[in-house]
Amino acid sequence: MTESLPFGPGALIVIAIYVLSLLGIGFYAYRQRQKDSLQDFFLAGRNLGFTILFLTLYATQYSGNTLLGFSGATYRNGLSFLVCVHFMTAIVVCYLLFAPKLYRLSRENQFLTPGDFIYHRYQSQALRILVTLIMVYALANFTLAQMRTLGTAFAGISQGRVPMWVGVVGLALVMLVYESLGGMRSVAWTDAIQGGMLLIGFIILMGLAFSQFGSIPDAIEKLASNPETLHKIKPPDADGTRNWISFVLLVGLGAAIYPQAIQRIYAARNASILKRSLAAMAFMPLITALVSVMIGLLMAAHLPDLKKEFAGNGFIPSETVLTQMCLHIMQQSAFGYWLVVIIFASLLAAVMSTADSALLSISSMITHDIYGKTFRPDADQAHLTVVGKCITWVLMIPLVWAALAYEGSLIQLLKIKFELLIQCVPAIYLGVHSKSLNARTVIMGLIAGLAVTLILIALDWTRVSGIHSGIIGLILNLTICFFGIIKKARRFHRS
After folding, report:
1. Is 1 part of a structural domain of the chain?
2. 406 and 441: one domain?
3. Same domain, yes or no, for 133 and 235?
4. How many other CB atoms are there within 10 angstroms of residue 387's CB atom?
5. Cα–Cα distance, 152 to 314 (Å, whole number)
6. Spatial separation of the C-alpha atoms in residues 415 and 53, rounded to whole Å
7. What is the pLDDT of residue 453?
8. Percent of the chain surpassing pLDDT 70
9. Are residues 118 and 77 in the same domain?
10. 144 in a domain, yes or no?
């Protein structure tokens, strides 16, 4: 959002102080550690209270893409992108399908990663590794996107005075330091601050959008009166409706099983705190996704010809929507200028909170599920904790390199993340509730779903009649699993 925002030295100093304060939190979290164990480092000793758990869930689920991507998508698509409110709500609904029971099992069996539940339920190391590799791949893509966004943001805020590589490397080092010091405790505490800033940012945006650009009914009236924008207030056709339903399922089912989300379920102090946190999360789409939709609609009505304004400049016009709104606000007064600084800090907070959570989860899965369970099953907790910290630093090297080298769009980078991740849904959702599902059936369904999804993507059939390729793969995956359950039930009945 910052390619053209005229931030001065004062704003840079404020943001620098904010970033450095994260290091102080990391050091304090290090002082609060109880012992050098994986439980303490990766799950904060399973002692997250309501406020911290809610804010870290919020900061992890809502990234910079919520501010930038949702407003841009609404600018392009119009009212139909209200679907984002539905799929963000669907994530919370999907949590409730398995989170309470998974939490109880995690307490009884001391789960550390999603792979622990997989092994406990199916007694298959092969399945554990397969699920872990899929999740690591999805999170690596996710983290890479966040790192690139951080670099772009810092290059923009400094008006090009700070190169992208300085932003990427500098912020990567900050995250590595506070994450290595305090693990999940550092990440959760910094997420609480970042989540609070994100909430403040959205509230400010909502107030500024209405005060500067008028009401939503007025915006809809303007869109309706312009033949070039009339389509933005029309409902989607049949193919579009199928696409959006598919998208709700894809994001709702997939995002709920993000490893960092599952580990936050494990880290809750008790079941009551977990349920209260999820209940509070149910209202967040109205404060976040809906605000982004309103910004996109207002800008579509008041600035409908961004293509002309940015022709030949190398920008994707719709991705400058939030920038344009902020520029307008900054030009009004000094008060507006500093409000935009807060908004930018909120964006930075959203990106960093998402990146640090994903990075910690990747490290925990590689350390515990692959290194600890496959190569060093006899290793003690202190050794594994050190290995986990080292893996975090080693992982950051290729991620930083890739973030600097990648030249495509972030959408292209992330497009198959959910398509692949969603194939783990049967193993977790059905595994929590059904005792009739066995490892062999789950592996067959998972491989079949992955194969169909990858073949469709390779053929450039990312959607078939509006249905995402990952959903088609999941249907085959679920069919195999249900046949396995029915087959086992029949055998049990006969016996």
Report:
1. no
2. no
3. yes
4. 19
5. 14
6. 29
7. 94
8. 88
9. yes
10. yes
Per-residue model confidence as pLDDT tens digits over 423-445: 999 999 999 998 889 999 999 99
Q: Are residues 95 and 244 in the same domain?
A: yes
Please give the share of the chain, as a percent, with pLDDT higher than 90: 32
Q: Is 197 helix (H, G, I), strand (E, B) or coil?
A: helix
Residue 464's SS3 state is strand
Residue 3 lies in a domain: no
Q: How many domains does the chain have?
A: 2
Q: Is the dihedral of CA 188, 192, 194, 195 positive or negative?
A: positive
Which domain range does residue 114 map to? Answer: 9-433
Residues 389 and 469 in one domain: no
Mean pLDDT score of the chain: 83
Rounded to two decimals, the pTM is 0.86
- Compute and round to an integer the Cα radius of gyration of the chain: 23
Which string of DSSP letters, residue by residue, matches 38-59? HHHHHHGGG-B-HHHHHHHHHH
Q: pLDDT tens, 285-324?
A: 988 889 889 988 998 888 887 765 444 444 455 666 777 7
Q: Of 120-129, 151-160, 248-257, where does mean pLDDT reach its minimum?
A: 151-160
Of the candidates 241, 296, 224, the one whose C-alpha atom is nearest the C-alpha of residue 83 is 241
Q: Which residues, 6+ apart, have CB-to-CB distance to 207 below 8 Å?
A: none
Phi and psi at 48, nearest 5°, equal -80, 125
Q: How far apart are CA 397 and CA 395, in angstroms?
A: 6
Mean pLDDT of 74-82: 88
Q: What is 230-258 written as a DSSP string?
A: GGGGSPP-HHHHHHHHHHHHHHHHHHTT-
Report residue 89 as tokens: 């709500």
Q: What is the pLDDT of residue 313?
A: 41
- Residue among 454, 456, 407, 461 at smallest CA distance from 134: 454
**Strand partners of residue 464:** 467
Residues 4, 155 contacting (CB under 8 angstroms) = no
Query: Quick one: 44 and 185 in the same domain?
Result: yes
The larger pLDDT score, comparing residue 360 to residue 421, is at 421
Alpha carbon distance 192, 217 (integer Å): 35
410 and 455 together in one domain: no
1-15, 360-374, 480-494: which is most confident: 360-374
5/168 Cα distance (integer angstroms): 19
Q: Is residue 70 part of a domain?
A: yes
Name the 3-class secondary structure at 463: strand
Amino acid at 193: I
